[in-house]
Structures are given as structure tokens and as C-alpha cells.
Amino acid sequence: MLSFGVSPEKADALRARMERLGLREADLEESFVKGGGAGGQKINKTSSCVWLRHKPSGLEVKCQWERSQALNRFLARRELCDQLEARQRGAASARQQAQEKIRRQKRRRSRRQRARMLADKRQHSAKKAARRFAGGHE
Questions:
Q1: Segment 51-83, tens digit of pLDDT
Q2: Which of 56, 58, 70, 132 lies 20 to 30 Å from 22, alpha-carbon distance?
Q3: In sequence order, which residues have a C-beta less than 8 Å from that of residue 95 and are 6 or more positions away?
Q4: Per the structure, how many domains does the chain have?
């Protein structure tokens, strides 16, 4: 059995989830690479970053969230399970919905939408100005 540096309950829950999804250790290609980014020498000198590939589906996961290689192995497998579940569920996945929401928020507004928004702001400003004290200063 694999040791991930987490509690036995979490490791067992991950194994059960992997079995439920049909994810076998034999189907995983795992390699360790040097990380990068913030974290100093420890991150840049050690191979604590885990790269996982599920051969049948072609899904790839790279994890360097923690400094511990064992914990990154656990987190990479959990992320792979999340991606596999999302693929099986399709458009109903929470991650895709969150990405769509961000995409909608970043989309440019049409000319009519901008004009209406500015008109609403002007109306609100006029309403607040009417509430001000009439004597000049409060």
C-alpha cells in the first residue's frame, strides 16, 4: 500500500474513491519534478512536485501545493479523481460552472448595457444628492 503522509482515514477514503471511479494505480504514470515559484531553495532544489498521468483517459495533473512529496502525491491523486468525476458528470460539474461564471463576468458589456448602467448610476446619484442637507455643510 502507498503511504501519503496523511491520516489512515483520508488515505482509505481516497483509495475507496479511486476504486469507485475505476482508477487503478497500475493505470497511473507518476514522476517527480523540481518545483518552482515561491518557497525558496527547498522548492527549487528538491523534486517534490508530482506529475500524474492517467493513461486510459489521458488526464494529467501536476501538484506542488505542499513542500512534502508524499503529501503532493496524495493531493495529485485527489485532484485526478476530481477531474475524472467532472469529466464523467459533464457540464454539471461545479468547477466548469465556476469557470463559466468568471468568463461571463469578464465578458465585455454591449453598448446598450453600458448606457443603461450609466443611466441607472446617474439616477441613483441624483436620488442621493436630493437627500443631502440643503444648508451647504452638515
A1: 999 998 888 999 888 888 889 999 999 999 988
A2: 70
A3: 82, 86
A4: 1
